[in-house]
Recover the amino acids of this structure.
């Protein structure tokens, strides 16, 4: 499957999905006017890819500056899919990156992580250069 790479904007996140390496990234700002129109074209191929994996190692990194409640619903669904993928015999690592002073984003990540039963989840501070 071809990689999906979308540059981030002031209202849409950066997307970098490398299907061959099973390395995925979503980050930046996410408050598109129509969440379904933005996310479906990237989440649908991801779901198709995940369904075909067995015994794979998958890394998913998130690094949001901000997202709205509609994006949160997409993320809850994605985390559930990733957890199911881990339950099916894959090794799934989820890394939630946040700024050191962004307690809200750290807590939001922790809330997502609390719902996981099978996937590995960690929060990490984004290192400043």
């Amino acid at each position: 499957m071809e990689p999906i790479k979308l540059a981030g904007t002031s209202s849409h996140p950066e997307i970098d999905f490398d299907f061959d390496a099973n390395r995925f990234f979503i980050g930046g700002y996410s408050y598109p006017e129509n969440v379904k129109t933005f996310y479906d074209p990237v989440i649908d191929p991801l779901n198709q890819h995940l369904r075909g994996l067995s015994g794979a190692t998958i890394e998913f990194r998130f690094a949001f500056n901000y997202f709205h409640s509609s994006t949160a619903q997409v993320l809850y669904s994605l985390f559930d899919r990733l957890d199911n993928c881990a339950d099916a015999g894959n090794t799934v690592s989820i890394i939630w990156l946040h700024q050191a002073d962004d307690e809200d984003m750290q807590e939001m990540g922790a809330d997502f992580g609390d719902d996981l039963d099978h996937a590995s989840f960690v929060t990490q501070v984004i290192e400043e250069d």
About this structure: DSSP finds three helices and six strands in the chain. The mean pLDDT is 96.
